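A favour, since you know our structure tokens better than I do. Go ahead and set the record down below.
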Amino acid sequence: MTKKPLVFTSTNYEHMRSGLEGKPGIDLGNVVRKTFSDKERHYQVMDDVADRPVVLIGGTGSNDDLVDVLDMGFGISELRPSSLTIIVPYYGYSTQERAEKDGEFVTGRHRARMLSNISSRAHRTSVVLVDPHTPGLVSYFDQDHVSTYHLSCRKLLTQSIRESVEGRFSIGTTDLGRAKEAGKVADELGAPLAIIHKSRHDIDKTKVLSVISDEPTNTVVVWDDMIRTGGSLKEAMKAYEARGYKHRLAYAVHGVFPGESLKAMMDSRLFDGVVVTDSHPRAVQLAKEFPDFLRVIPMVPIIADYIVDRVR
């Protein structure tokens, strides 16, 4: 008899555990965590994972998140599951694909090597990345030790656009680099495409040059894979506003929003709203503080489908 996958979540991804509760074909695992006064962590898995397929869900957006995933991954691996699948909703350090200056470190590669070491002769290990900012990230992993897969949230977000955005709208971009993906979304939704052409003068400063669109509409839905501080988005929205788009929405898979960046986006009055998934715990937290501006879509449906269909 085939055993159902046993699913664990890292500390900051407990919100996904609650979404998976009661899903057919999935069992939820239990782990007791303690943090001592010197910040050392103690874990105890309360389930028998031997010879069972195990899933660990956890992002690597901060050092604490990464260490949590590593501790749990290595610990579960030692308990001899039949397979271990690590689903990473948000992979941190994903913006730099290669070193461009002498002495630069590609930190994302180092993190991938750490995760690749969560392997054992006793079981297969897979790493599933959800819409990584840099597709080349998969090459950072040691393919001799782990198998890597990509999970996309595009259908999840396009369905939200269909259900939520009224009237005729365009799909917009923040730069030419996102035009191909945005074009696929526009084709899927039967919407015209609007493209931002810009030049970058400094790491944190951008200058928008023009908006390219064959069919202007009253509403533009700007599509991106990740919103960090929102600087590029604000510059793009200024250009769309100047071009005559009266309603401006931003959709992205990952919402990082460090510091007061989301509030700055809201205070700019350039956005009607922002929609992201719950891939980053910061977005989940801020959606409770700014429910009229930020909407978070759970990615549990696509994760649950992947677990039931692919994890053995």
User: Anything to note?
Assistant: The chain has two domains: 6-152+300-310, 154-278.
